[in-house]
Structure formats: C-alpha cells, structure tokens
Amino acid sequence: MKLQMYSINFEASEQLNSFIQQRMNKLETFYDKIIDGEVFIKDNGSQSGTENKEVEIRLLVPGTTLFSQESAASFEAAADAAADAMRRQLKRHKEKQATH
Q: Are the C-beta atoms of 26 and 34 separated by less than 8 Å?
C-alpha cells in the first residue's frame, strides 16, 4: 500500500513514522485491495486536557474512502485506536463487498 504521512504542528521522529507504518501494514491482512492511504499526525499542544495527540487515517479502497480519527495522550495510543477503528471498517467493507 502506498502511504503518505503528514505531521502537523511538529516534526515526527523516524521511530514514530515506522511505528505507524507497521500498524498500517497490518491492515492489509484484513483487506488486500487498499489502493492508497494518508495519515495525519497532529500535535494539538495548545488544547487543554491530556488527549492532545491526534491521528487521522484515510484509506482509499475500491468504491469508497474510509476514515478514522482518534485522540489520546500519546501518538502511539492514538495510532493504535485509529488503526483498530480502521480495521473494523475494513472488515465491514469486505463483508459488504462479499454479499454483493
């Protein structure tokens, strides 16, 4: 899968990028027809509260675009939650395709 990663309001480390890349690669085991993907990593440090790290995932699959967005105290936790939400969407999309 071709994956574009964007970090907004900060410079993402190579370690964080590889962590997110690994999580995204696992999504291909659930649905192998993913065409393209974008990940937006945002540091909303000015927001009050502890959940100021945000990860958005947008995947282009045949017929639609899937999107998930999660916030957490760390980028790793937000990426895990967003990837988990995307995994559920991919499974649902795959089941819908199989019934048609």
A: no
Q: How far apart are CA 66 and CA 73, in angstroms?
A: 24
Strand pairing category for 36-43 and 2-8: parallel
Read off the pLDDT of residues 14-50 as tens digits, 9 standing for 90 and up.
999 999 999 999 999 988 899 999 999 999 876 666 7
Q: Which among 75, 80, 73 is positioned nearest to 52, based on CA atoms?
A: 73
Q: Given 3-state DSSP classes, what are the helix, strand and coil percentages for the chain, each rounded to the nearest 5?
A: 40, 35, 30
Tokens of 50: 């502890």
| CA–CA gap between residue 43 and residue 47 (Å, rounded) | 9
Structure tokens at 51: 């959940």
Q: Residue holding tokens 């967003």? A: 82
pTM comes to 0.90
pLDDT, tens digit, 9 for 90 and up, residues 62-89: 989 999 999 999 999 999 999 999 999 9
